[in-house]
Amino acid sequence: MTSDERVLLSFSVPSEPGNERIALAKVADAVAPCGLSDDQVERLKTAVAEATMNAIEHGNHNQAELDVDVTVAEMDEGVAVSIVDQGGAHSPPADAPVELPDLEMKLAGLQTPRGWGLFLIQNMVDAMDVSIDGDLHTVRLVMRTSPAPRPRDPEGGPRAEQV
Fold first, then answer.
1. Which helix H or strand E contains 119, and what residues bound it?
2. What is the per-residue pLDDT across 24-63, written as a single tens digit (0 to 9) for each?
3. pLDDT tens, residue by residue, 102-126
4. How would you class 86 by CB atoms within 10 Å of its CB: exposed for 0-12, middle for 13-18, buried for 19 or more?
5. How many domains does the chain have?
6. How big is the chain by its Cα radius of gyration, in Å?
7. Does residue 12 lie within any of the structural domains?
8. Are 76 and 4 within 8 A, CB to CB?
9. How does DSSP assign 35-69, residue by residue?
């Protein structure tokens, strides 16, 4: 968290499938007065739900006794949501590139049908940062109230910048 951020809400959910709905609802309520458009709130909810599902499943391996911690902060230029799980020691390096899923390869069975999560998250928000600190794995999502033009990937689609 940076010095210009004000925590609006901090909470935890047990690592049980379905708790991503609790997280997205709480985040949506917390950011309601922050000046995001309806479209931005919907995209942020999608990103929060996906990041929370990943934290529950891949980070904490559906172990209900391990919480996923969520912090919502308001910044001068928007909001930031951090989702933290206990899977840092088993995560890919924080600077690993997000692989572009290939629908044709997935349909042909040459790529796993899974693996859309980080790609989806990255394209829902203005910026995404993944960090690892020991066992802690954090996905930080940023949505700006006045979004800068979104960079485009080589295929011509939108791509979130790295924070």
1. helix 117-124
2. 999 999 999 999 999 999 999 999 999 999 999 999 999 9
3. 667 656 776 665 566 788 898 899 9
4. buried
5. 1
6. 15
7. yes
8. yes
9. T--HHHHHHHHHHHHHHHHHIIIIISTT-TTSEEE
